[in-house]
Amino acid sequence: MRKEMETYQLIERSINKKYRKTLWNPFIAAIKRYKLIQSGDKIAVCISGGKDSMLMAKLMQQLQRYSDIPFDLIFLVMDPGYNEINRQKIESNAKLLHIPITIFQTNIFDVANNSDKSPCYLCARMRRGHLYSKAKELGCNKIALGHHFSDVIETTIIGMFYGSQLQSMLPKLRSKNFEGMELIRPMYCIHEEDILSWKRYNDLEFIQCACRFTENCTICDNGGGGSKRQEIKTWLRRLKRENPNIEKSIFNSIHAVCLDTMVGYKSKGQKHSFLEHYDDTVDPTKIDSI
Hints:
By secondary structure, this protein is α/β, with parallel strands linked by helices. It has helices at residues 7-16, 20-33, 51-66, 84-96, 108-113, 119-137, 149-163, 192-201, 228-242, 246-253; strands at residues 42-47, 72-79, 101-105, 142-144, 172-174, 182-184, 264-267, 270-273. Strands 3-2-1-4-6-5 form a 6-stranded mixed sheet, with helices on both faces. It has a two-stranded antiparallel sheet with strand order 7-8.
């Protein structure tokens, strides 16, 4: 008699079978295209408890299981001051998915809540710093975050519409403050709608808004309320009705920026103008004929 599969095995099979084209294949494509993992890496897979980081953990776990490239993983959960419900939800989901998490405590929510600065900005900065620090302490050389394709598109548009700048989100970058540490984004090519589909198919519930400032939203699909990111999500949904490939076009455009047509750009913190090299394009022997 065939043995019935456990829940975590069914979830893993859904990644390998039903969602192979939309989750597993783009995950592998990003790993290869951006050279995110090398032999001997020790990677801290950072889990916030949401759908994105939990799926990333399963993808990384399965990759380690089947990959010819040897690398180590630590599934790292930073508790910034979660309420009891959120903390328990993270732990129960990790157990359900057979993810062996390592949890460490911080007081980020308390510090951010009592600061004169923007609490969201300060919280994000502190989270990243604590994750780098703990990962390095555990002997890791990389941290993996669960940002996905949709985050990349939305961040690019938010920068244009509200930040007056053309900038995007890199699939990997070296830390400036923690020597030898690197950040990677293995879900760079995975669409959020496919993550939501996988979550619903497997009847999973993850925490969404764990912040002290939004305690009323603990388990849901769509947080954010009236945030700028939520505005962009709504705007993109409308545009996709007319042009289903619009996100793909935006994604491709950040891979093919033509600096020769840009009036100005910033590199390594320095601003540059097209005027710096404008005269270099003129042939001095033809000036009189212009």
